[in-house]
Amino acid sequence: MRRGRLGALTRQTALGGLLLLGGRLSDLLGAKRIFSAGWLVLAAGSLAAGLADSIVVEIAARAVQGAGAALIAPSALALLMMLFGNEPKELMKAFAIYGAAAPAGGTAGVFLGGVITEWISWPWVYYINIPIALGVLAVVPSLMPNTSARRGSIDFVGALTATAGLALTVFGVVRAPEEGWASAATLVSLAGGVVLLGLFVLIQASRREPLMRLGIFRAPNLGAANLAQLLLGAAWIPMWFFLNLYLQQVLGYGAFTSGAALLPMTETIMVLMVVVAPRVTARFGPKSPIVAGLFLLAVGMAVMSLVRPDGSFLVDVLPASLIAAA
Predict the structure, then answer these.
(1) Left (φ > 0), alpha (ψ -120 to 50) or beta: where does 87 sit?
(2) What confidence score (pLDDT) does residue 261 get?
(3) E strands in the chain
(4) Which of 55, 197, 229, 238 has the greatest number of C-beta atoms within 10 Å?
(5) What residues contact 193, with CB distance under 8 A and at least 6 apart?
């Protein structure tokens, strides 16, 4: 369990730290090329993780997976804008499906992981990504629009400081319960992370072509949208993680059963995001649904905080999880 959590943290840290670089590469080299390259990198990382004979190799491979995802995510969004940018209604639907993919895919991944772990073997948790990547690469040439490259500089130093700063900060927080929040190891890690992230901001302010133009945050709607996404991620991901632990370690569910228990959340997310959310947004604008959504998430988490050691799925988990998913 600890090894899996460390691998997941490594992958997500690489994804978060390299996301801006992936977007910049998409701008300069073309979204279609970077999208394909990202799937190749993800497949390579998955193969290496499945074949790993040590935790060090496996963790490094998970970082490669995160780097591949950091290339895929921004280039996929750019391709989506190219395909539907001239059709506002279709673009809203496309955004809804794109948005639903992350939480629904994460929850479905837990279910499939349980199936694979119990009925096949654990390395296939990684190998399953390879045929998916090959399938995507097979259809990209015919389905995705061509994009042209353009000249420009790439801020590799900024990408390095952002990724290293994020990694040190995450490492310090993760190790703090064992080392102690006031221990030298924790304080050095957190201080190093803050210094590197501050250095990243200084680099972005001084670069002619930065990874992230700091001036974009003067746009009030952009700042509010990013804050909402930050709050959503900070609430949803830990809730989903601890809910999975509750199902397995308290209720005693196996990997397959706990994954199946999360499927109602997945279905609720997909239906509401794809069918309901675009209509609500079209009628009331984006601000009201954001506030209502965060309120519902807070209610769902408050109800979930009342789970009992001798609880049950139908009483303690299902109602709260459906509210949060909504």
Answers:
(1) beta
(2) 86
(3) none
(4) 197
(5) 165, 166, 167, 168, 169, 170, 171, 172
Helix (H) / strand (E) containing 247 = none
State residue 1's pLDDT score.
Answer: 47
pLDDT average per 10 residues of sequence, the chain (326 residues): 66 88 92 95 94 88 93 92 81 80 69 71 85 94 85 89 91 85 90 94 90 84 86 85 88 82 86 86 88 93 92 92 92
Q: Alpha-carbon distance 204 to 84, whole Å?
A: 31
Q: How many helices (H) and strands (E) does the chain have?
A: 14, 0
In residues, how long is the chain?
Answer: 326
**In the chain, helix, strand, coil percent, each to 5?**
85, 0, 15
Q: What is the DSSP letter of 314?
A: I
Query: Cα(first)–Cα(last) distance of the chain, in Å?
Result: 29
Q: What per-residue string of b and e applies to 275-293 under the rule 16 or more CB within 10 Å gives b? A: eebbeebeeeeeeebbeeb
Under 8 Å CB-to-CB from 240, ≥6 apart: which residues?
106, 107, 262
What CA–CA distance (Å, rounded) separates 206 from 213?
10
Long-range contacts of 113-118 (CB under 8 A, 24+ apart): 113/255, 113/259, 114/254, 114/255, 114/256, 114/257, 114/258, 114/259, 114/260, 115/256, 115/259, 117/255, 117/256, 118/254, 118/255, 118/256
Q: Region of 154 please: left (phi>0), alpha (psi -120 to 50) or beta.
A: beta
